[in-house]
Amino acid sequence: SQQGEEDPQALSIQEGENATMNCSYKTSINNLQWYRQNSGRGLVHLILIRSNEREKHSGRLRVTLDTSKKSSSLLITASRAADTASYFCAMKTSYDKVIFGPGTSLSVIP
Amino acid sequence: NAGVTQTPKFRVLKTGQSMTLLCAQDMNHEYMYWYRQDPGMGLRLIHYSVGEGTTAKGEVPDGYNVSRLKKQNFLLGLESAAPSQTSVYFCASSYHRDRVYTNEKLFFGSGTQLSVL
Q1: What is the pLDDT of residue A77?
Q2: Is A100–B44 a contact, with Cβ atoms under 8 angstroms apart?
């Protein structure tokens, strides 16, 4: 499978703490994206990092990419209860396929 | 501007029945994708299309067919439904030729819950 792997599968933190999710993948990629899914809803795009970039920021989100290790991490700083959701990494390959990882379920406790 | 619309939202089929899921987008996107989501598996790519009249296989294409006769529509067909196809199906689109810097992200529909008994 070309799917990525994500860890942890589930993460529970207190409001105000930082949350870090990791993604590893197997194939070459053009870019890596992170998406968020609230329970029972469609996915919403959070941030994209291209294969020639190492780090990107957007508000409370920080994404890193290490193509030599085929891995990425998503950091959410100062988490809020509203950040409770599932987070998925998605890899765009050279054939325009977009392959998703299995996701990390984040619970932020008020 | 509706974005990506999936119909139907819910469907129950008996084993062996056929059905078609419709995905429509009004953003003039070139690329469209069909995924299925099962508990603990994330989203798995079934088929995708990079333009009108083109389709390609994803990770789990068996048991499904697709067609992209019009740019705005991407149809997913199940010819003979099986219980293993019980899942939530998501359609997504991306890539507008004239909006280079925003064309990589996927826009998702709200999903179709399909149960095959």
Answers
A1: 97
A2: yes
